[in-house]
């Protein structure tokens, strides 16, 4: 465990009740939201490849030299993060052995490959987050594992299941085109490879493309800069555990206070000569309470324990009644009290939400000595308006004399100059600027992935989706046969992201096995089934919009553009992951393919 993690006694979300004036609070929430609302929504962000493609370079691996490949395969998997790994393992377990993987990075790990900033840690309990623990015979060392352990674990999945032999790293897909006559996907890459595959499975991650804020002057800074997903240890010194010795004589600014920033800030605060934390909207910081794994507990686990624990966590985070809370952390505490926002009683949930957020705000007062700084760090919005954060060392960082919170009052950075940045008319001169500004979400898939997908008759997917997504279950697309898209759009999400990836892997394996066994060459949803799913997803839109409308902008609510129909269609399935998993399970059990059109050999 990092030495920076402290164990505060009564901090964070507690069941202690606090009193509040809910009318005044609601008004305060609206005022804070209105400060942040902007007309340009998602357009406020810049495409990193256009603004500064240096920020995309891989600082972690030496270039691989290899000749182009020409290869036929049954399944072509794009992405070597947990989604791709789970698809590969589930295929293998179903008896499908002819598949290859490509991955842009130099190794497996996906988000854990790229996000190696100091303090990177999974804030979902590792016993439910790290997949395949029973198959791997592995128990994470801590309740919340750090990035290095998760990255190494990803590699060990690759080794155990023999995936390295069929993976092409540092390889970017350039085009995917469906050849209807041959019933094959034709795939080209930046390495000059030519693959041909019966099926394509894309698991490229919903938050994989770094995004940059559209701050005037962003390219004019003459100091050192990078995005948190490409941490430059050659400049900062140290590694993921900290020890950023290179910053001892440096003035550093970190822009953004999201889930990433709160993990990195304590390490920057420990080493930088001067640290400016540039905040637009405060994040909610709940109690973490990390601890080493108890070996006695690990020994007591019975077969099937991980799926049971995952299901228990999933049920609680969907507001469903359970006999026991196995994970017992801030996530289950929040959702256990509040219920998921859909399907729960609105006014009751709102009162519980106020209560929880009052506790979050009270924690700031407990942890931060300077009252003005504490006030600035308090979030005024409903808890699921933004990704909640959990940390025990972030707030105390602001008690250090070298750390300054720069509160932009919702306006963001005014300008970037050659020497630093300007907020509220004041210039802060720095040596190093770190962008903790997050990732593109629900922008065009081709923009995020860097390639287009051409379906039947050469139709680009961007064209089919110009008015928003159209899919069956988020995975299948009419006129793009034999192609699985494992993303969030029109599919379910849950705080434990790998839970859904595991379900997706099982689904892919089931469909591919069925097609290979039944000699089905072309498999796609009927137009009616696809439309019915889109209609079903959209039938929840009103409820979600109602919640989102009250929210401060974030990628959770389309940056405040709540009424945009196309963006609403791109949203996740609001019926919840429990219902979604049941839909898929029942479909598999029935073995009824009425929603699909199948062309046999
Ligand atoms: P986020 O998108 O959550 O945060 C970006 C930050 O940049 C926000 O604080 C945002 O402010 C700020 N920002 C954007 N534009 C400007 C501007 N013009 N001026 C000033 N500030 C600006 O990105 P993160 O990388 O923190 O997190 C992304 C996601 O990654 C998380 O939501 C989570 O899903 C995942 N993650 C998960 C972790 C885990 O442990 N499982 C750990 C880390 C990340 P504002 O809030 O006002 O928009």
UniProtKB/TrEMBL annotation:
Q: Which UniProt keywords apply?
A: FAD, Flavoprotein, Monooxygenase, NADP, Oxidoreductase
Kindly list the GO molecular function terms attached to this UniProt entry. Answer: monooxygenase activity
Name the SUPFAM superfamilies on file.
FAD/NAD(P)-binding domain
Q: Is Metal-binding set as a keyword in this record?
A: no
InterPro entries this protein is in? FAD-binding_Monooxygenases, FAD/NAD-bd_sf
Cofactor(s) it depends on: FAD
User: Has keyword Nucleotidyltransferase?
Assistant: no
Pfam families xref list: Pyr_redox_3
Q: Which family does it belong to?
A: Belongs to the FAD-binding monooxygenase family.
From the Swiss-Prot or TrEMBL record, give the protein name: Cyclopentadecanone 1,2-monooxygenase
Q: Which organism was this protein described from? A: Pseudomonas sp. HI-70
